[in-house]
Amino acid sequence: MLITDPAGEPVELDELDGDATLSVLTSLKVQARAVERDKLRVVAHWCVLHPATAEDGVATWDPSGLPGVLGQEESLGGEGCPPVAAFTPEPLAATLGISKHAVRQLIADALDLGHRLPRCRRRVEALEVEAFKARRVAQLTHPLSQAAAAQVDAALAPVLHSCSFAAIERAVAAAIAAHHPELVAEREKKGKDAWDVTLHHPGPADFAGTSWLEATGDTLDLTAFYDRVGQIAADLADAGDTDPLGARKAKALGVLARQGLNDDQPDQAPPTRPKPPRSRKPKTHLFLHFSLTELLGLGVDDTLVCGQVERLGPALEEAIASWVRTSQATITPVLDLNRCWAVDGHDIPAAMREQVVQRDKHCVHPYCATDARACDLDHITPYLPLDEGGPPGQTNPDNLAPLCRRHHRAKTSGRWRYRRDPTTGNYHWTGPHHRHYLTTPLGTLEHQPN
Question: How is the chain split into domains, by residue range?
Answer without folding.
Answer: 2-179, 181-200+212-277, 288-325, 350-434
